[in-house]
Amino acid sequence: MNYEEFYQDLQPQQKSVKDGLASLQKLFKAVSRELEGGDVKSLAKDLEAMAQTVSAVAESVDSMKAATNSFDAKGYFESGAYAEQMLAACVEKGVDVRGEFPVYEMFPYRVRLDSENQDVYLDRKKVQCMRPESFVDIVKNGQEKLNRAPFNAVAFASELADAYDLAVLKLNRQKQSDIYLTNLYKILAPMSRFRKDYDQQSFAFDLARLYISGVEETKNGRKFQFGPSRVGGKGIRILDMAGKEQFLATIRFYEQAEE
Questions:
Q1: Number of H helices and number of E strands within the chain?
Q2: Exposed / middle / buried, residue 3 (Cβ in 10 Å: 0-12, 13-18, 19+)
Q3: Is the Cα torsion angle 101, 103, 109, 115 positive or negative in sign?
Q4: CB-based burial, 81-107: b 16+ in 10 Å, e otherwise
Q5: How many degrees, rounded to 5, is the angle at CA 3 between CA 106 and CA 7?
Q6: Are 138 and 129 a contacting pair, CB within 8 Å?
Q7: Which of 51, 83, 95, 151 could in theory staple to 90 by disulfide, Cβ–Cβ 3.0 to 4.6 A?
Q8: pLDDT at 259
Q9: Are 228 and 247 in contact (CB under 8 A)?
Q10: pTM of the model as a whole
């Protein structure tokens, strides 16, 4: 099963409905003039034309309705065809995607496919879209919008530094120690209601923008350095400027004099 085939099959009927509605609009204007002006002969002729056009439009609509009702949405999802075509669309449109059915990451979004209800979730929002190509367009447009949004890298680095200082005290660590970024996220968003507005994927996106910004220090001149981790699951996946994945696990802040 392929949605694009279903889409193409319905194009002739869709065009027929569009053309028919355009004709009806013209005929309606003519009928209105004729009715107002008393041109009964033309009125009768155009009303007959309207009736024939309405009938043709109704046939096309019924045909589209029958095809839509026969579309096996449940089988489309359960067979894996939707997921397969979604991944193919990601490749075609240059959208980075990782994961396995039913959960995927299209940085910085989390995508979940609900086969039972034939629903697609983009983060926590349900998207009514059974056309994989259109769904990937939604993702790509969202990514482009996020990338265009203003971002103050220095301000974010300074907020990270404040969270870092709290983590050093809380964890009883030495200054300039490597601290897991996941620990800083918990400080930046300490309560569940805060995490709904600023989830870890949003945090990862801000980290990515900081990573590619070229900024190297905070407002007060403290330097910072990201680091990896050998502990599985601790790294936060981001995409660099070239669109390649990187895993950031830790960060440390230090004074300029350390160099």
A1: 10, 10
A2: buried
A3: positive
A4: bbbebbbebbeeeebebeeeebebbbb
A5: 125
A6: yes
A7: 95
A8: 45
A9: yes
A10: 0.84
- Residue found by looking up tokens 């002006």 in the block: 37
The answer to whether 160 and 184 are in contact (CB under 8 A) is yes
Q: 51 and 11 in contact (C-beta within 8 Å)?
A: no
Side chain identity at residue 78, one-letter code:
E
Instruction: Compute the distance between CA of residue 31 and CA of residue 51 in angstroms, rounded to an integer.
Output: 12
- Record the tokens describing residue 76, joined without a space: 């489309």
Render pLDDT for 109-157 as a digit per residue (tens, 0 to 9): 999 999 999 999 999 899 999 999 999 999 999 999 999 999 999 999 9
Token pair recorded at residue 108: 């910085």
d(CA 120, CA 76): 13
- Residue 2 — φ and ψ, nearest 5°? -140, 125
